[in-house]
Each structure stands twice: as C-alpha cells, then as structure tokens.
Amino acid sequence: MWTVIESPIGELRLVEDHGAIVAVDFHPFGYADARLVGERDDSVPVLVECARQLGEYFAGTRTRFELPLAPVGTPFQQKVWGELVEIGYGETSTYGGIAARLGLTGHGARAVGLANGRNPIPVVIPCHRVIGANGTLTGYAGGIERKQLLLDLERDDADALF
Questions:
Q1: Looking at residue 138, what is its pLDDT?
Q2: 3-state SS string over 41-62?
Q3: What pTM does this model have?
Q4: CB atoms inside a 10 Å sphere around CB 128
Q5: What pLDDT is stored for residue 100 in this prediction?
Q6: What would the pLDDT profile of 16-74 be if each residue is shown by its tens digit?
Q7: What is the pLDDT of residue 36?
C-alpha cells in the first residue's frame, strides 16, 4: 500500500509492505512505479506513522526516525544503508569514510556511492548526509537542491522547513 504526502521538498510517496516502509519516492514518481505495492490507502497505520514522523522532522522536532524499515537491496547495499542511519542528525560523512568503516579499500568509496544512490528510503535513511571528500554536495536522487534543503534543515541555526 502507499500514500502521498506534501512536504517542503515536494510530494513524497510513502510505500509499505507487510507493515514496514519499503520506499519514499520523490515527485515525479514515474521512475519508481515498479516499487508500488498494492493500491493507495491513506489509513494504513505504518504510513500514517511515517507521515507523522516526517512532519515532525520537517518541523525540526524529530532528529531520528523510529519506523519499521524493509529496504530491498543486495547484502552490500544493506550494509551501506545500515551505516547511513548511524550518521547523526546535523552531521555528514563522506563516501570514503563509510567505505573505511566497512573495511573497504581501493574503489570502496565508489561502491558506497553507487549503493547510496540506490537507497529506496531517502530522508528516513539519510543518504543526504553523505558528501564528497572535498566537502561538496554530490549527486542525490531527489536533486542537489533537495539535498541542500535537508542539510540546511539539520544545521543548528536552521529554521524548520514546515
């Protein structure tokens, strides 16, 4: 089942399967239609809770999500996404930093970048907190402008977006 909510970064489609969040899609949704599970149902408890927590996040009152998550991906992607949720609110990490925590060498940072880009639950699994080694913003599935808005929200001196 799925629902759509309004947010300061545009409409977000929240998708659940068997009581767990499996995707948060940015508008336009066309690229992620294969992830749809069932029909739209705005009353599914986990979707209602996800919408509530996202609202609190955008209002600046939530720094960590407490939701059942079930992102679909390879074992390596799962490891990378597990590292992403450990990046604290208002903090950033680099692709190389995550690769090092996973014990990767060589092209590890690139592999982390590819896995990061396939994160099906952005914002909740905070892939926006990963930046380039030189401190620049790098690619983001929702676009660099959204990434910057999310990072700005999390700065200590930022005002809430909602």
A1: 83
A2: CCCCHHHHHHHHHHHHHHHCCC
A3: 0.91
A4: 27
A5: 95
A6: 999 999 999 998 876 566 666 689 999 999 999 999 999 999 999 999 999 999 999 99
A7: 62
- The CATH number of the structural domain formed by 75-154 is 1.10.10.10
Gap between the Cα atoms of 55 and 6, Å rounded? 9
* All residues at 6 or more sequence positions from 13 whose CB lies less than 8 Å from its CB, including other chains: 2, 3, 4, 23, 24, 25, 27, 29, 32
| Residue-range domain boundaries for the chain | 2-59, 75-154
For the chain, counts of helices (H) and of strands (E): 5, 5
State whether residue 7 is helix, strand or coil.
coil
- 136 vs 90 pLDDT, higher one: 90
- CATH 3.30.160 for the 2-59 domain, yes or no: yes
Q: Which two tokens stand for residue 20?
A: 């767990």
- The residues assigned a catalytic role are 127
Separation in Å, CA 2 to CA 8, 49, 83, 108, 146: 19, 12, 26, 34, 22
Phi, psi of 26 (to 5 degrees): -80, 150
E-strand ranges in the chain read 2-5, 12-17, 20-26, 93-94, 130-131
